[in-house]
Amino acid sequence: VHHSGLLPLLKELVEILFQEGLVRFLFATETFSLGLNMPARTVVFTSMRKWDGEVFRPPSAAEYIQMSGRAGRRGLDAQGMVVLLLNEEIEAEALQAMMSASPLPLESAFRLRYNTLLKLYALESYDVELLVRRSFYTYQRVGALPEIARRRAALEAEAAALTQPDEPRLRELLAARSERAGCEVAMEAFVRAPKHVLRFLQPGRLCLLEDASRGVSLGWGVLLGWRGTATSAYVGGASVPPERMRASELVLDVLLPCAAGAQALALAGDAPQPAPLHDPSAEAWVLPVRLSCLQQLSSVRLWLPDEVSSPESRRGVLHALRQVFAERRLADASAARQLNLRPLEHLGDSSPACKRAMGLLDAAVAREAQLDAELRRLPAVVLMDVGGETDGDGASGSNGAEASGAHVDGAGCGGAANGSGGATNGSGAGRPAGAATPATLVEREERLSRKQLLQQQAAGLATEAAGVACDEFGETVRRMQRVLLRLGLVDSERVVLLKGRAAAEVDASDEVLVAELLYRGFFNELSPAAAAAVCSCLVAADMEKIKRPQTPLPALQPPLATLREVATEVARVYTDAGIATDEAEYVQRFDSGMVNMVHAWCEGATFAELCDSCELFEGSIIRAIRRLSELLDELKSAAKAMGNDELFSKLEESCRLLRRDIVFASSLYVEM
């Protein structure tokens, strides 16, 4: 096995053995494909989805080319073999694009940072704005202006072709539907709260699930039971009541329709794929699902057999679930919403916040129904099909009044489907092109939604072009200069001051925040181990997060509170200078999840104890500690620039405590 979470030494050992031909089968992530001399006779893709740290997605063309390019050993194989195991449906166009697309275009990653500005100011004779104007980034941005203008014009022309009668009322209806959906999300938050929902998690209740991490809807299933995770059962040796657990710490056992072959996937350690309820080949399986995946909890319950472990009993439950939909009790989204649990009526939540949210939801539903009824009473509208695809230049192939192709018919729209029912596409799919058939309300809404999307894209391109035309980078430099002046890193003549010289030495973290902490004597009262532990917050943004972090040690809580206060002040300075900054998000970047782990390591804990204290892979722990070591070296340079010998000695001791054992073992490639 080879992946980025392995110990570096173990990973290097696998690579050496593979190069020597002593490993015949290797299970690896795309990390292995970056090797310069790691050819193989055959490359097998066991799945066409990969985890990128946030969601599961198909590999990009560049990733596929890099991985499949390992197939074929020079001088040994006449050709290499690439095998794709398609364990789920994939569009032929998407597969072709992945396998034959051109390489990714070369794009500038130039980002101007405060330490870059400070170093340039220290040179005195160098013009920062000249550097920006001569950068490859500016060259690309200016050169893209004609293409941006062409794409914007094409989008605006396509949007104009989708104009239809009564658009203001349609816009109001779409806004009402969006408002209602937002209120329903707020209601579901009350429903999913463990303190309310636990007494309603009875076997047989129907629930709608969605795996947000993969962006996959699991559909409707039948709840069989629930339990707490092992890690949430006890905290600090004391039992935690279920109602105090977080939604991510409660697991539901749900019977769901799964695609054929679910058992083989489960035995292989992969998640079974969901299947449509009406699919006759769907298999019924009981899957563990976190409560945080619950989207809707219905008031409908099914009677269950005494046991559901046998395939026959599971098929019987699946058949009963299909019968519920066959009777149209949950046939569409609006019917399902009417049978959802409601906090006031079912859960007994009479808090002011819940009452306010319920009032907003009821008002939004009434407004949506009123607008829906008004539009249905209007004369029918015939929409000529303008085509959903653009031509090679991005234009729709139709324009002006002729392209809109809409006229009013004398007949009413009374038989149209409602706003949440089975929709066709916005250009009237299902009808012959150009057919004079009255459009349903759903088709009109989707046509307007498509027009709004095109208008948003055109507005985004207009903003991008305006930014280039008004010297966006020059304005960014001026805003950054205001930050440096406000915090005392430079003076009005742009002369770098003492705090600025310290910030110029920092690259592994937010240099402005670090300089502010150094200048305020933040580290003066901390021990070397505590200083290293608190510094782990400063590199947390680039590291893998610990999902269930421990509460920081009492001795570390005061400096962590100070760090958050200073970070809040810096975020406000950014905002005042015109640099858009979300204060809460900025402070959350400096996560304290690793402080206990780093403190324990500096106090002499073994690496095995570190691994037991969190759920991170060994390689992730080592990368975090090595990144922290780089930051401590930069802080030493900053302390020397400030002339603070005492702080330099303390940080030197922090580095000594940190750099030991397997975390900083020499590479096998160096030893060879």
Layout of strands and helices, then pairs:
Layout: H1 8-19, E1 42-45, E2 50-51, E3 56-57, H2 61-68, E4 81-84, H3 92-100, H4 114-123, H5 128-133, H6 136-143, H7 145-160, H8 167-192, H9 194-197, E5 205-211, E6 216-228, H10 230-233, E7 234-235, E8 238-239, E9 250-258, H11 262-267, E10 283-290, E11 294-301, H12 311-326, H13 333-338, H14 343-347, H15 352-377, E12 379-383, H16 400-404, E13 406-412, H17 441-469, H18 472-486, H19 498-503, H20 511-519, H21 528-535, H22 557-576, H23 583-588, H24 595-602, H25 607-613, H26 618-642, H27 645-658, H28 668-671
Parallel strand pairs: 1-4
Antiparallel strand pairs: 2-3, 5-6, 5-11, 6-9, 7-8, 9-10, 12-13
Helix pairs in contact: 2-3, 7-17, 8-15, 8-17, 20-22, 21-24, 21-27, 26-27
Characterization of this structure:
With 672 residues, the chain is of the alpha+beta class. The strands form 5 sheets. The protein has a 5-stranded antiparallel sheet. A hairpin with a 2-residue loop joins strand 7 and strand 8. It starts with 7 loop residues before the first helix and ends with a helix. Residues 230-240 and 387-435 have low confidence and may be disordered.
**What is the percentage of strand-forming residues?**
5-15%
Q: State the distance separating the first and last CA atoms.
A: 22 Å
Going across the major beta sheet, what is the strand order?
10-9-6-5-11
Report the uncertain regions: 230-240, 387-435
* Tally of individual helices: 28
Count of distinct strands: 13
**Mean residue pLDDT:** 79
The helix content is: 40-55%
Largest sheet: 5 strands, antiparallel
